[in-house]
Design a protein that fits this description.
By secondary structure, the protein is of the alpha+beta class. It has helices at 13-27, 36-45, 101-105, 126-135, 138-163, 166-181, 197-204, 208-220, 235-243; strands spanning 47-51, 56-58, 66-72, 75-80, 86-92, 97-98, 112-115, 119-125, 183-184, 188-191, 224-227, 230-234. The longest helix has 26 residues, at 138-163. Bound molecules: adenosine-3',5'-cyclic-monophosphate (CMP).
Amino acid sequence: MTFSFARPTFTSPVNEESARIRSSIASAALFHSLSIDAVEDLAQRASIRRVPAHGTIVTQDEPGDAMFLIIAGRVKVGIFGENGREVTLSLLRPGQCFGEMSLFDGKERSANCIATEPTTLVVLHRQDLMQHISRHPTTALNLLGEMAARLRRADESIAQLALCDVNERLVHRLVSLAEEEGTPAAEGILVRRRPTQQELANMIGSCRETISRAFNQLARDGMIIARGRSLVVTNALMAKSSRAAAC
Ligand code: CMP
């Protein structure tokens, strides 16, 4: 009697990791409209790095030698003042990139980048990125687009700091959070991970006590609904913010 066994199919960890790198690159906005060849070229040059929650990925003022694409987790980009106060420049999500500025201007890292939860990254070293760009210039155009979008957001923040009071800045920030990562709910838009009041203060250049007062007033006015770790930004607040777009 002969027995026949189905041959088990093994996916080695190395193959799994390459497949993950390839699909993350192919779906990231930064690498959109790249040819299959270009995606393959990048994927072969990239590696994966895992960072625990609160781990520092990039330290301000250090030389930069790599850029990163977030596959999972979240990264806070921020600057510490000499008095120890922190300004949060951005909170980055899967699909977003960081760490490219020092690769292009050759200067030190412009900010700290810290994982706020366990985070997985695709890492691309400077030399690999430059070699890739010399063969696939579309990647350079995409990077320019990304930097232009970031400059626009920075311009908006500067304008808000100059033109809006802290209540208005808080409203803008909450509405942006709802637009960026919220999901529709009965009363408005649900933000699952509500930032702490200190985090909101760091994002809009204020202090926790002021944010606490402004936040509680919005809650009393029924404009936001805090629910445990989540927050509903009501339709009324969304409408109010779009009417007062320029403060
Ligand atoms: P680099 O200067 O190499 O290291 C820090 C990174 O933080 C920087 O590249 C950018 O990718 C990112 N970064 C700096 N400023 C901002 C900002 N205002 N918004 C989003 N990301 C930023």
